[in-house]
């Protein structure tokens, strides 16, 4: 048994049975080991950003880490942005990065790079295997790290000779590191704060879906506080019957208005709300200066235990949380706009769908319209590095093959990782992609105004639009093996979407909108 075979067996023993991969020469022994273990599902991505983003989507929907297989420092560098997004969302994954044989490094071969330097900035755990006998233990440690602290990025660098040299037995799985918990006096202080006037319980992580969201809703119902969350959370349960959680907006001044009456904010599974960027004469944080922030339970602490303790302290276990009622709009027709597309999605969204939202300037109209649709999960991009939507949809669809995945993305964002369309086609994933083709990075027009620049000249305009030539998403989809249609009005969109969510496999809808259309200014 060589080191690569030992590592694959160790990953499988630790419950890691999906590998999103873009391998190269240094990983061939690992590829051979994967080939001899059919219980590991191997999924090829044509770009490393698609690989790492898919692993993120898989974690969000299962709470289980997938492995990635990446080629040397340039390969990890190509996947960096979506590892960053995963880390900002406290996602877990095990990155296996091939390296040159250790004795070959001194020759400075063309693909030699500083893997540790590239990976360190987005890895919570990082190790280079020293020899084949260490690989199994390193792999078990990597899986443990990925599962710890509510999800971490674990990166294991595997020199080629440690993969092909003889190894010993695979390592047994290790339990995650125990999560830290608040003290009883902190629980009591938080309970007192939530009972006060102007209180808000600001939650994140696992408190945004499933049983923990229900527990948070009970605390809010019992104490009378507001139940709130950030906008760009990794996963939020929404729609009919979901706990009513009030979400923030993108603009910091809008959030300042939302929070103006908050006097006490208790943080559970979330950090203090912060503006996405700094702007001249605008605050970095939207909470009022007089607001008392109580950081009860950070995102890497024991969220489940904390909510249970807080519910017991507030006598909330028998309370009934406020939930969203089903409220479907009529199907719109006529001219196509972001608001109308949102209304159509709300009316037609299948039960138990998964919506990945990176439609940027169209995102808020979609979010507002679908809040009271049929029950669904809503995945955002907590790291802000665009190009996440299509890979996230791949990972979510692999994780939940019985659920329809909807990926809503801007055309500029989708160009970062459009290779993920090919993976959707190869794996026959039930993903409906909606590309909002407003022919540019419209968010940048607003950001230019936010920093005080209101005149757009030729150079700025050419950096904002993706026209001349115009992107053809029907052709791009077909070139990746995905059927597609173009929607110029609401009737054609409704027909295309209604058909897409009923058919197996991936389908893309290009929504044609001028940059001046409502919701896209």
Automatic annotation (TrEMBL):
Pfam families, A to Z: TPP_enzyme_C (PF02775), TPP_enzyme_N (PF02776)
Entry keyword set: Thiamine pyrophosphate
Source organism, top-level taxon: Bacteria
GO biological process, alphabetically ordered: small molecule metabolic process
GO molecular function, a single term: acetolactate synthase activity
Domain Thiamine pyrophosphate enzyme N-terminal TPP-binding: 1-106
Record-linked InterPro entries: THDP-binding, Thiamin_PyroP_enz_TPP-bd_dom, TPP_enz, TPP_enzyme_TPP-bd
Residue intervals of the Thiamine pyrophosphate enzyme TPP-binding domain: 372-511
Family as reported in the entry's similarity comment: Belongs to the TPP enzyme family.
Protein name per Swiss-Prot or TrEMBL: Acetolactate synthase-1/2/3 large subunit
Organism whose genome encodes this protein: Tropicimonas isoalkanivorans
